[in-house]
Amino acid sequence: MSVSRAGAAVLTLARETDHGVAPPPKPCNANQSPGDLVSPLSTLAHQELINALLGEALALLDQDRASARRCIEGARSLIRAPDHEDRPRNCLLAEWQVRRAKEFIRNNLATCLRMELVARHVQLSASYFSRAFKATAGVSYSDFLVNARIDLAKQLLLTTDIPISEVALACGLADQSHLTRLFGRIVGLPPNTWRRQVLGAGS
């Protein structure tokens, strides 16, 4: 099939879908709905995904018209989608995004870990990631980060004898007073007191 004929066929399929001739479309991936194909990527990546779906539709026209139609519907969903900043606030992260975000956080606790860096690591904007992370994890990004830092502090307090000031730096906190303040708020005791009590109870 020539490119011009293929393009005309794609347009015909799109019109059929618009006018209800085609059966209810299914996404190219059986585990996703067309709306699931929408992600807050950059404009360039968004356009590349649309082009890829249309290219796949062209390749499938002669062999599998139904699959070609599904790819077209996926592309049309992306084209019609509103900007990600206007999407519902109950959006959720995909499993791979949750896993990658948490791994990235835990592996970089000694740094400042701005949310923008984590969001970029899972290919999302910071504003979308903030809403989706809270909806998925049940806690805000900032609360999750603080708790992860305190968990690391507990581990270091129990497995090393380094001073509190060094524990604070290893957890990405400014100084000992910063760690003491956060630790007391979450655990209920100063770090040194908690360390003595836990180690003493285990001896």
Structural class: mainly alpha
How many structural domains are formed by the residues?
3
**pLDDT under 50 segments (min length 5)?**
17-42, 81-89
- Report the sheet-strand fraction: under 5%
Give the helix tally.
10
Note the run of SSEs as H and E.
HHHHHHHHHH
**Percent range for helical residues?**
55-70%
C-alpha Rg, in Å?
A: 25 Å
Mean pLDDT: 78
Mass-distribution shape: rod-shaped
End-to-end Cα distance: 79 Å
Number of strands: 0
Q: How are the secondary structure elements laid out?
A:
Blueprint (H helix, E strand, L loop, with lengths): L2 H16 L24 H18 L4 H16 L14 H13 L7 H7 L4 H12 L3 H19 L4 H7 L5 H12 L3 H12 L1
Explain this structure.
The chain has 203 residues and is mostly helical. The chain contains ten helices and no strands. The chain has helices at residues 3-18, 43-60, 65-80, 95-107, 115-121, 126-137, 141-159, 164-170, 176-187, 191-202. α5 (115-121) packs across α6 (126-137), α7 (141-159) packs across α9 (176-187) and α8 crosses α9. The N and C termini lie far apart (79 Å).
Which structural traits does this protein have?
10 helices, rod-shaped, 0% strand, Arc Repressor Mutant, subunit A
Précis, in short:
With 203 residues, the chain is mostly helical.
